[in-house]
Amino acid sequence: MKAKLECVVLDCPDPIALAEFYRSIIGGTVNQPDRRWTTEYGDATLHLESGFVLNFQLVEDYRPPRWPDPAFPQQFHLDFAVPDLDEAQEEVLALGATLLDDTQGWRTLADPVGHPFCLVRDWSLLPDDGEAAG
């Protein structure tokens, strides 16, 4: 399996504000329509010219990290685009991952030491029907 790193997801209390902050630093477009992500749950996206996306995930009781205090760890996860979710899930489970959730149309797993990551459908392999996820 060769997955594509497609997105980095950061927890935060105000997704739009954080997306605008990073847009001011690196450019891009906030909440560009894209069938790969939805913003209907309060999340925001920042699409960069390179095609890479940052996603800002709403967390109601957000506690910021305190570098380098492990009691308040860094809060982000990786999204990997794969051609087949079932096949990719089997492969990463065999490598030592643990399935956390598969109810959202993508798969959330933990690496062998507990860091969450997601396997998502590789939309670039599907015909573009003009639909955006959010």
UniProtKB/TrEMBL annotation:
It comes from Glycomyces buryatensis. Coiled coil: none annotated. CDD domains: VOC. It comes from the Bacteria. Pfam families: Glyoxalase_6. Residues 8-120 form the Glyoxalase-like domain. Transmembrane segments: none annotated. This is VOC family protein.
